[in-house]
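Same chain as my last thread, 410 residues:
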Amino acid sequence: MKEAIAILTGGGPAPGINTVVGSVAKTFLAKGYRVIGLHYGYSGLFNENPHFEDLDLFKTDYIFNQGGSYLTMSRFKPTDKDFEQNFNLDFFKQNNIKLLVTIGGDDTASTANRIAKFLEAKQYPIANIHVPKTIDNDLPLPAGTPTFGYQSAKNAGSVIGRAVYNDARTSANWFVVAAMGRSAGHLAFGIASACHYPMIIIPEMFNKTTITIDKIINMMISSIIKRKIIGMDYGVAMISEGVFHALSEEEILKSGIHFSYDEHGHPELGKVSKAMMFNDILEKKLKEIGLKVKSRPVEIGYEVRCQTPCAFDLVYCSELGMGVYKLFSEGKTGCMVYISQEGYVSPLYLKDLQDPETGKIPPRLVDIHSDKIQQVIDNLMNFITPDDYEAARKYVANPETYDFRKILNW
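reply #2:
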């Protein structure tokens, strides 16, 4: 029987998934392997009747530059009981599968590591190689290497973001924009800095103080007042959804939002509009302090996940896909494929990235101290400083309350 590989995609979509799948498939097909695409993520490996199909050259050539994921995705997270009782080894044996390629983010990577350890303990001769994916850019890849999908999502988000900024200028309004990013602010900061937004709020900014809704609202008002002082009665404030992960239960209750949670225990932020919530609270606070400002909410979320990948991700994802074969041919397993900025392929072992206590891969956060970030804060953002106190008293009696750096305890 011809040797085969199986490919699955987990978590949420990101631009470039089909490019990885197509590139892996084309490479292995050219080497004489059968390529199987597994639908519904990990659930197929713990199912007696998995939904799968053969991927041939014509199919993969059609999908490689498309957005979305041809292979149906899933956030299924197997339990210890699933591993002991439901793992479908027959699927691997009957199809002569020698390699499992997993494509996903931190949760998918963590599960891939569990599978690699499980197969090793059971002495199953099946290799596992993971391809890191997330538009959040929060997997800890070396030397700041981006996760695939991030550049395309940032580009698509910036198209929306620029239109929003033009609307603000045209109509003399303010907009409150929220962008995806479960625990890190890479996407929000990337979009906002590309659009020169006068206020950007990401969780990493609160490195010296607790995140509260009041502080977030006061940071937005700080920018509104500063722009009034300099004669610009419009603007946009960007907020990363990651701030919700650092809010206390009390603060979340104060927001009035009740979250549902996914299989991995994460609040399903995509089901609620963070922009709407913060805009409502901002409007109430502006009315309370007597500032006449019109504001509108805009959510940047699912719109950027299935975009057609940009040139960066088309090339990067092709390199990752071909890199899977290179690592496999070298006998590597239980690792992620990593492409250095110089273009070299190497294995990045999941066990070396995991937290030894939790077993999870910690997120890569925005380095708030870097010149890249500090220059945007110092030169592009607008907010109240002590030099503005006198002019700000025209709008508020207590400008110190809206001092950006004081709010953050910087």
